[in-house]
Amino acid sequence: MRFKERAVISERLWAQRARGFGETIFAEMTALALKHDAVNLGQGFPDFDPPPFVMEAAQRAMADASTQQYARGSGELVLTEIIAEESGHALGRSIDPTSEVTITVGATEALFAATLALVEPGDEVILFEPFYDSYPANVSIAGGTARYVPLRPGADGRWTFDQDELAAVFSARTKLIVLNTPHNPTGKVFRRDELEQIAGLCQRHDVLALCDEVYEHLAFDGKHLSLASLPQMWERCLVISSAGKTFSVTGWKIGWVVAPPHLSLALRRIHQWIPFAVATPLQHAVAASMRVAKESNYYSEFLQLYAGKRKRLMDALTPTPLRAYEPEGTYFVMADLSESGYESDVELCRALPRDFGVAAIPPSVFYGEKHRRMGRKLLRFAFCKRDATLDEAARRLAALP
Ligand SMILES: Cc1ncc(COP(=O)(O)O)c(C=O)c1O
Q1: Based on the domain organization, do 165 and 192 belong to the same domain?
Q2: What pLDDT band is residue 4 in, cutting at 50, 70 and 90?
Q3: Ligand 1 pocket, residue 43 CB under 6 Å
């Protein structure tokens, strides 16, 4: 039997929820980048080494025979304790490391477990577009319905949402809003007044919030603020972060959720049936790394490093026909391709590796059907790359007509 026939027969046996998902765009673009030996500014992972103190913490944890068995289900206390200290500081309250912090397999598992724990069939979940691609997948697996609100760039280049448009998607069926700040892929950092509007709507409609803050240490202009730190919002929020971006170890997949006990408990009921517990030595390594970071200038040096890379990529895009929006946070730049002569993001993303030797991501995949056209005129570039990688990309992008 040929492979294709086998695939058709076996797909018939798949559950409907699996059939609905194609391969992610990242896999297609990474394959194209490899095929054409392109500089890959598509996927958001660093191509440089993690800091030495992080690698040393991992080596110490692996050498310690006492941390090689199953971890405590909701996370090793050394890690939940430092996370409680750090997030307590950010949220302006005291956080209990045993009942209010849960360690997950990256932010990805946190988002999945939280959505399954809170969303029932028929419930609606509000997502800003462009979204991180796992949000709508999680909502669909939970049997909920996603309602979308687009972010648009203003005349000043800053992305924002329309207040009335946001208010209009809240209803009696709304269970949850997912708020990612700093925001992938636009780089938007939500301001206090915007968070206050969202908080007001959550309270009025009795809605919970999943706060995805994996880029919490990458806010360049103005401070990152959590929705959970606003008055009366702690009780409604699950704050999600992870070590991957902050310590340049995306492969470790150590994430966490900080939430009040009643929401943490719901999350743990689902988490116990997904991984049960998360890699013990890596939890110890992240705990030790967070201690070092806290007691040194790591977080501000990390931000400085990325501010330099942001400038490098912005400078690289300036002479090209791609009009880049300077991000306020994260390690992504969105650029408008309207003046490039290409029709759509997908067309340009397929041509870029082949004809110019650079790979990017087409953002139309981060929109629902209704607003997809907004993404067609955009490209996303990641700048979590060595300066030499960014310079080589700049040299190649200069050839764009
Ligand atoms: C907005 C956002 N949320 C979640 C994740 C996933 O994080 P993790 O690798 O910790 O699962 C990413 C990774 O790119 C992200 O950009």
Answers
A1: yes
A2: low
A3: no
Taken in order 74, 75, 76, 80, the sign of the CA dihedral is negative
Query: How large is the greatest C-alpha to C-alpha distance in the chain, in angstroms?
Result: 63
Structure tokens, 257: 């959720």
The pLDDT tens digits for 257-277 are: 999 999 999 999 999 999 999
Do residues 163 and 187 share a domain? Answer: yes
- The residue segments making up the domain with residue 31 are 3-50+298-397
pLDDT single digits (tens) 319-357: 999 999 999 999 999 999 999 999 999 999 999 999 999
Spacing, Cα 187 to ligand 1 middle (Å): 14
Are 215 and 342 found together in one domain? no
**Ligand 1 within 6 A of 332 CB?**
no
Helix (H) / strand (E) element for 258: namely strand 254-258
258 and 360 fall within a common domain: no
- With a 6 Å cutoff on the Cβ, whether 107 touches ligand 1 is yes
Q: At which residue do the structure tokens 């609606």 appear?
A: 124
- The model's pTM is 0.96
pLDDT, position 26: 82
Same domain? 173 vs 222: yes
3-state helix, strand, coil in the chain (%, to 5): 45, 15, 40
Mutational test site, ligand 1, from 245, 278, 366, max ligand atoms within 8 Å of CB? 245
| Residue 131 CA to ligand 1 centre (angstroms) | 11
Q: What is the mean pLDDT of residues 7-11?
A: 71
